[in-house]
Design brief:
The complex is a heterodimer of chains A (116) and B (114). Chain A is mainly β and 116 residues long. Chain A has strands at residues 5-7, 10-13, 19-24, 31-38, 42-50, 53-56, 65-71, 74-79, 88-95, 106-107, 111-115. In chain A, the strands form two sheets. In chain A, strands 2, 4, 5, 6, 9, 10 and 11 form a seven-stranded mixed sheet that branches. In chain A, a hairpin with a 2-residue loop joins strand 5 and strand 6 (53-56). Chain B has strands at residues 3-5, 10-14, 19-21, 24-26, 32-39, 46-52, 60-61, 64-69, 74-79, 88-96, 102-104, 108-113. In chain B, strands 2, 5, 6, 10, 11 and 12 form a six-stranded mixed sheet that branches. Chain B has a four-stranded antiparallel sheet with strand order 3-9-8-7, with no helix packed on it. Chain B has a two-stranded antiparallel sheet with strand order 1-4. Classes of the chains: A mainly beta (116), B mainly beta (114). At the A-B interface, strand 4, strand 5, strand 9 and strand 10 of A face strand 5, strand 6, strand 10 and strand 11 of B.
Chain lengths: 116, 114
């Protein structure tokens, strides 16, 4: 398996522009997570899905952020409009359900977002 | 709610020596899993080791072992015979049976000195 695939690896944009981050989870995984990593706040969970359904989006910073999972093999995280404080590394991760609490996360390589 | 606390922002260890990275947790879930991940400077997140809350024995994976003390709610990572390639950020995380999400600590930066 190719692992969790994220695109793009790097994104540089100007304040006010729309940014779309993409993620393809590992086939057969039914949990998908979006995390954001910054020096100041560490790893923050933004939102997670189970079987394509959003379960907890309490970590989404504000209405400028939205996430979708239209099918089991694709998810997007959109920021509109983007702001410099959104600059961070955004990770997508997936896992099996089974007993869930004993399932590790498989992380993508992350998207380094810079908003100028 | 789940909480992970890593009290050591940075640690140094001499090459070939052992090092312990601390992790304490708090949860109301009756069953849970504890995980350690490594993040080298290249940025990827690498799974190292897992411990289940009902596991009787401490988990081991090669040079990594997890010192699990349930009553003290601690899950420290022990790295034996440190190597230069162990220099990285290390995250402790947990996942409860009542919540699918994983909660991460703030991480510990480990530097291995030659």
């Amino acid at each position: 398996d190719a692992g969790v695939i994220q695109s793009p690896r790097h994104e540089v944009t100007e304040m006010g522009q729309e940014v779309t981050l993409r993620c393809k989870p590992i086939s057969g995984h039914d949990y998908l997570f979006w995390y954001r990593q910054t020096m100041m706040r560490g790893l923050e969970l933004l939102i997670y899905f189970n079987n394509n359904v959003p379960i907890d989006d309490s970590g989404m910073p504000e209405d400028r952020f939205s996430a979708k999972m239209p099918n089991a093999s694709f998810s997007t995280l959109k920021i509109q409009p983007s702001e410099p404080r959104d600059s961070a590394v955004y990770f997508c991760a997936s896992s099996y359900t089974l007993q869930s609490y004993n399932e590790k996360l498989f992380f993508g390589s992350g998207t380094q977002l810079s908003v100028l | 709610a789940q909480k992970i606390t890593q009290t050591q922002p940075g640690m140094f260890v001499q090459e070939k020596e052992a090092v312990t990275l601390d992790c304490t947790y708090d949860t109301s879930d009756p069953s849970y899993g504890l995980f350690w991940y490594k993040q080298p400077s290249s940025g990827e997140m690498i799974f190292l080791i897992y411990q289940g809350s009902y596991d009787q024995q401490n988990a081991t994976e090669g040079r990594y072992s997890l010192n699990f003390q349930k009553a003290r709610k601690s899950a420290n990572l022990v790295i034996s015979a440190s190597q230069l390639g162990d220099s990285a950020m290390y995250f402790c995380a947990m996942r409860g049976i009542n919540a699918g999400k994983s909660t991460f600590g703030d991480g510990t930066t480990l530097t291995v000195k030659p």
